[in-house]
Amino acid sequence: MRASKTWFKGAGGRTYAGGLPTAGYKWMGDAVNERLNRRMEDALARSGEIAVRHIRKLIGRQCHGEHSQPWEPPKKESGFLQANIGWMRKRKREVVVGVGPKVGTANVPYAGYLEYGTRKMLPRPFLRRGVYESVRMIRRAMIEAFT
Prior knowledge:
The chain is α+β, with helices and mostly antiparallel strands.
């Protein structure tokens, strides 16, 4: 059995496609696609900002001589780590949150040691925890961008 499209002219010269009138309608697919892409770009930028703000907030507690415990986010001593957390666009639909020259503004060599730990120090995760805790806020921002 062969599938066929129903294209025919109706009364008064109107063109019908599959039984729906098409006269007077204009194709807006490209403009709609462009608007959706812009909204997606804005939503991705917003999600990067949300994650960075939350991670900086985790680190924002001042040290006052008492260092962080294992499995807690690191406490702020100089503010250098906190200042160098950032986000960037890696690909068209991908946002990367991190610390370092490609994401933040300077190289922070101890960030990986804090995040993952060493042989002698248990980890003080802040990036993974911050992103995980901000997922609900990011999801809400994505929904708001398209409603």
